[in-house]
Structure formats: structure tokens, C-alpha cells
Amino acid sequence: MPSSTRTNQRRTRRRTERDRRGLRETGHETDSRNHVRPLEPESGDAPQRPRRMMPRSQTQAQARSQPLVGSASSSRVTPRRSTGRARRSAQVQRPRSRTRRRTINPTRLLSWRAVSGMIVVGLTAVLYLFLTLDEFYVSAVAIGGERYMTREEIFRFSDVAQRHIFWVDPAKVAARLETVPNIADAQVYVGWPPDMVQIIVTEREPALIWEQGVRVWVDVNGIVMKQREDQPDLLRIVVPNAGEPITVGARIPQNIITGALYMRSRHPNVDVLLYDSLKGLGYHDGRGWTVWFGSGADMETKLLTYNALVSAFYDKVQFGEVVMSDPDRPYYTVLWRKQ
């Protein structure tokens, strides 16, 4: 048998003997099955109730954790020698005496809440500056496209003076400018200083002058505008015995404007036309009478019929008034008959 095996057996026997001695000292014995049973009570003691035998491993654990009973000295039981694994675990669990320096990462100090708070504070400051600085309030605008109106008038009609740039709506400003009769179209652009607001307008061109209590311009669509300057080459339409003056922004029927312009193109020497609410358009013929054409509809046919009528009766009668409202049924008044 090898010497190492003998050595292990000796160690096992010694350990067993040592455990038995410890059990005897604590008042326990072991049987052949390696179970622990209590010792017999001494003579004179009261009989004890039989107890259940405990396993040997549990009894050994109690013997190690409890002090010896009945020993002369109060010394503790010497624990078993720790194995190599326990020794290593103790070494691992043993705290190190050296203190390690902690390195601080600057990025960890800035959490997402801190960054969000900084962003909110910055945006609040910027918004406060936008709302309080005078540079963001409209005090002047860049205007283009004006011809008859002045820039001061356009700026006043835009109604953006001393308004904050955030509250200027380009669509609303353009719609407000287009309500002015002289302005046909308006485009508004909003940007940053210095030219925060830019306005480009297209004005209506006057087609004729309408005199009804006041003198105003009228464009080809019949929109009445304020007269900005004197243009003597424009056709004038005079309303005799007008009850109320015409107002700027009113609208004259389209067929009247079309008929008047057509007559001017056929008779360039006619500078002034008349208008009556019942008889329509007319003019004073240089031969001594007044002719009325009604509305401006079918003006070409009415002129042809009028010229034929005058050619047929001019040598016979002196017309007082000729009415051509219906070209199929014209009528006239006679001042006198000629010889």
C-alpha cells in the first residue's frame, strides 16, 4: 500500500478520535451507523424522555459553534483548520487598505434634465428679447409698384405700423390692401430686419372720368377710384342733375363702360358723354340735338342705325332728341321741319 494512502488513513483515524472525544465532552455518543445519541443519565437523576438521534454532521456543527460544557476552563472550542479554499475566499473578501482615486467624468455631471433646463432657459431668453426689442416692431416698410398712390398711403392702408413682426400675417395684410379701390393686387413678404415687411402693389389704371357730384376715376371693370391726378386725354362721362354724389369704391355696370369706350374708339372727336339713369349713354351731336343709346350693349348696331336715320331725315327735319335704346324701334323729336 502506498505511503500516501497510509498517511491519509492515519489522518482520518486521528480526526475521528478527536471528534469522538469532543462528543463525549458535550454529552453525546455515536453508534455504528454514525448517528449521535445522548448519554445515559446518571443514577439518582429523573428518567428523561427519549430524544431523536441527530446526524453526525449536524452534531459536529453544534459542537463547533457552542462552548464546551463541564470543562474546567471557559475556553472556546478550537475551530478546525480552514481549508485552502476558505483561506482564498477570506483573502478575496479582505478589504484592501489602499484607497483608489475616483476619476470624475464631466459628461456624467450633465444629465439630460440639466441639459433640458439649459435649453428651456435659453429659449425663454431669446423669446423675451424678440418680444421686447424695438427692432422687431414694424416702423417702416419697403414698398414697390406704386404709380399714382404715395408710399405713405399704402403704409397707412396696410395697418402694420408698430405691430410686432410675429403678429403680421402677410395674407391678411394683402387682403386689406386689395380692399383699397386703387389697388388691384398686393403681395406682402415678411422677413428679418432691416426690411422686415415688403409690399408690392399693382394699381388699377383709369379708363375714364366719371363726374357725378365729384370727379372720380373708373377702370375698365367699372370700379370707382379716387382721382389722383388730372389726365385730360381720358373720356369724361357727365351725369346731369345727379341727386347724390358717387362714392369711391362703387361699381358702374360693365356694359356702360364697354359701350362708352367703344363709342370713343369710333368717334375720337367725342370727349364728353352723357349718362341718364333712364336713357343711358348719350352725347350732344354737333348738329344741334342730343342722342341717347341706352345701355352700352349692342353699341355697333345702334351706331349704324343712328347714322342711317340721320342720313334719311336730316334734310327734312331738325331733330330735338333721338333715342336709340332699341335699334329696331328708334324714335325722335322734331323741333321744326325744313323747307
Describe this structure in a few short sentences.
By secondary structure, the protein is α/β, with parallel strands linked by helices. The protein has helices at 3-26, 56-65, 84-93, 106-109, 112-132, 151-158, 170-178, 254-266, 299-313; strands spanning 28-30, 35-38, 54-55, 142-144, 183-190, 197-203, 208-212, 214-218, 224-226, 235-238, 272-276, 280-285, 289-294, 317-323, 331-337. 34% of the residues lie in helices and 22% in strands.
Helical stretch count? Answer: 9
Largest sheet: 9 strands, mixed
Spatial order of the strands in the main sheet?
9-8-7-10-11-12-13-14-15
Mean pLDDT: 80
The residue fraction in helices comes out at 25-40%
Helical/strand content category: alpha/beta
Shape: rod-shaped
**Beta content:** 15-25%
Written description of the protein model:
The protein is an alpha/beta fold and about 350 residues long. Among the domains are: about 30 residues; about 70 residues, Roll (Ubiquitin-like (UB roll)); about 130 residues, Rossmann fold, CATH 3.40.50. It contains 9 helices and 15 strands. The strands form 3 sheets. The protein has a 9-stranded mixed β-sheet with strand order 9-8-7-10-11-12-13-14-15, with helices on one face. The chain has a 3-stranded antiparallel β-sheet with strand order 1-2-3. Strands 4-6-5 form a 3-stranded mixed β-sheet.
Summary keywords:
Ubiquitin-like (UB roll), three-stranded antiparallel sheet, 15 strands, nine-stranded mixed sheet
Helices and strands in order:
Blueprint: H1 3-26, E1 28-30, E2 35-38, E3 54-55, H2 56-65, H3 84-93, H4 106-109, H5 112-132, E4 142-144, H6 151-158, H7 170-178, E5 183-190, E6 197-203, E7 208-212, E8 214-218, E9 224-226, E10 235-238, H8 254-266, E11 272-276, E12 280-285, E13 289-294, H9 299-313, E14 317-323, E15 331-337
Parallel strand pairs: 4-6, 7-10, 10-11, 13-14
Antiparallel strand pairs: 1-2, 2-3, 5-6, 7-8, 8-9, 11-12, 12-13, 14-15
